[in-house]
Design a protein that fits this description.
The chain has 13 helices and no strands. By secondary structure, the chain is an all-alpha fold. It has 2 domains: about 20-250, no CATH class; about 270-343, no CATH class. Helix 4 (about 95-120) runs parallel beside helix 6 (about 155-170), helix 6 packs antiparallel against helix 7 and helix 8 (about 195-205) runs antiparallel to helix 9 (about 220-245). The longest helix is centred in the N-terminal third of the chain and has 44 residues, at about 5-45.
Length: about 350
């Protein structure tokens, strides 16, 4: 045997086997995370809530029991729960509350799976991974997965999935189509997911800009197409499904959502002075510290004291989008926020 030939053959074989080996390594991690996530389902189920008096639990369960399959504000979520209720009732004679509780626990498994993946992407070490995992898993949102009868279970899990794919896109490890698709699913599950769109646009800008602030050569025009498709489908889907759901009630989407433009001067619209002042007032009441934090970040960023880390700025944009979630576009009376429908 000739050593130089041996080395050449070994290097050639290693090159062939490297990609399958890396793929199997990733798959083994995904499988272990998936199994660990499924093991959480019995825990969620055993400790599930029993009274169904939190939030709109009774309302949501009653809707699917009556056969409602369309909703103006959570179209995909109501459709999934309605179809699951019909299926489980025919198989095991489950009632509407048991159906919601079971799907809540399944959403919890999805949440845990993507939380594990996200913590691995963000954490720089095993301790960092555990820290990120602990922070996300111990927030108040974890309550949604203990049999909670509400419309936010799959939405919350989809937001964590969205963050995971966004981080991978920032690292150049996945296509921009992945976060666009998950963002579209989130906005289909609940109109609240629509508030992820600004962060999606910011994500694309971050990925295609140099540190000098100029766009890179070879600008990814497909990303613009993905954004336009996501935005168009989100708006068209919400409007179409919402109109179908409200047709029998003889009311329009503006009964639930603030219209962007008004027909007369002084109308209470999305960008009217009155609404913007209400937004500021709500923010001051709910979390005034956020305004101070953002002011400090913008001030010190100009002085170069804040590190220009793309991932940090992206998460900041997500936090800003979600912090303005209810106060910027939601106007349903009687749920603890300002109302544009004076009694």
């Amino acid at each position: 045997m000739v050593p130089p030939v041996n080395r050449a053959v070994i290097d050639w074989v290693k090159g062939i086997l490297k990609r399958p080996s890396d793929w199997l390594s990733r798959m083994s991690r995904y499988i272990s995370y998936a199994l660990g996530s499924l093991l959480c389902v019995p825990v969620f189920w055993v400790f599930r809530e029993k009274t169904h008096i939190l939030g709109d639990g009774n309302l949501r369960a009653t809707e699917i029991a009556k056969g409602i399959v369309l909703s103006p504000t959570e179209p995909l979520d109501v459709f999934l729960h309605s179809q699951a209720y019909q299926l489980f009732r025919s198989w095991w004679n489950w009632d509407e509350f048991t159906t919601y509780a079971f799907l809540s626990c399944l959403a919890g498994a999805i949440f845990v799976f993507f939380t594990l993946l996200l913590s691995r992407e963000i954490g720089q070490s095993k301790k960092g991974n555990l820290l990120v995992l602990g922070i996300i898993a111990t927030t108040g949102g974890i309550q949604l997965f203990f049999g909670y009868v509400e419309s936010y279970t799959f939405l919350y899990a989809s937001i964590i999935a969205y963050l995971f794919f966004c981080v991978r896109y920032l690292k150049g490890e996945c296509s921009f189509a992945a976060p666009c698709l998950v963002c579209l699913i989130s906005s289909s599950l609940h109109v609240s997911g629509f508030f992820l769109l600004p962060s999606l646009i910011y994500l694309f800008i971050l990925r295609n800009k140099k540190d000098t602030g100029q766009f890179q050569r070879g600008f990814d025009a497909r990303g613009v197409v993905f954004i336009l498709i996501t935005l168009s489908l989100s708006i068209a889907g919400i409007w179409m499904l919402g109109s179908m759901a409200l047709k029998s009630q003889e009311v329009g989407l503006t009964h639930f959502l603030i219209p962007p433009l008004g027909e007369t001067e002084g109308s209470y619209t999305l960008f009217s002075c009155s609404h913007l002042l209400d937004v500021l007032n709500e923010q001051l009441l709910i979390f005034p510290l956020a305004i101070a934090v953002w002011a400090a970040v913008l001030l010190f960023r100009r002085r170069g004291a804040v590190k220009r880390d793309k991932m940090s700025w992206f998460f900041a944009s997500v936090a800003l989008s979600l912090s303005c979630l209810w106060t910027q576009n939601w106007a349903m009376p009687g749920i603890g926020i300002f109302s544009r429908h004076p009694e």
